[in-house]
Design goal:
By secondary structure, the protein is mainly alpha-helical. Helix content is about 80%, strand content about 0%.
Length: about 140
């Protein structure tokens, strides 16, 4: 059984890590913004519920980003759990896109963002359903190139 990592697998692993890192940075920025808005809300500024929704989205973002980074590392190591984590990451990506679709107000931009947000999860699902990719990530032995 051939367990070498292909160029496509390397690309997916690196992209997962990059997206996860960017996700953590954006989530931390959202936490900082939420904290600033929450402190202002006590002085008659923003509504507290909106800020708590922002904070919840930031925490969900950290969760998704952490799964993305772990999936990227697992794919680069050709670990058997790399496929599972990558498909989980795709599912979390889809959930966040659906959540954003429900929260956003202007219709046209949110539909465009939703469609764009579906591209990478769809690519992950298609790639990890290919027979060669399934074979590489189902066995526990590996020969990483």
């Amino acid at each position: 059984m051939n367990k070498t990592r292909t160029g496509g697998m390397t690309a997916v692993g690196v992209i997962n890590i990059v997206f996860g890192t960017v996700g953590i940075l954006l989530s931390l920025l959202t936490v900082i913004t939420s904290h600033a808005l929450l402190s202002r809300s006590f002085f008659g500024g923003h509504e507290g519920q909106e800020v708590l929704v922002l904070l919840g989205m930031a925490l969900y973002g950290v969760l998704c980003a952490g799964v993305g980074i772990a999936a990227g590392v697992a794919v680069l190591k050709v670990s058997s759990w790399g496929r599972f984590l990558s498909l989980t990451y795709a599912g979390l990506f889809v959930l966040s896109a659906v959540f954003e679709l429900c929260l956003s107000t202007p219709l046209t931009p949110k539909i465009i963002r939703f469609i764009l947000s579906m591209i990478y999860p769809l690519i992950l699902v298609i790639l990890f359903q290919k027979p060669h990719w399934k074979e590489v990530f189902t066995s526990s032995s590996r020969n990483v190139a």
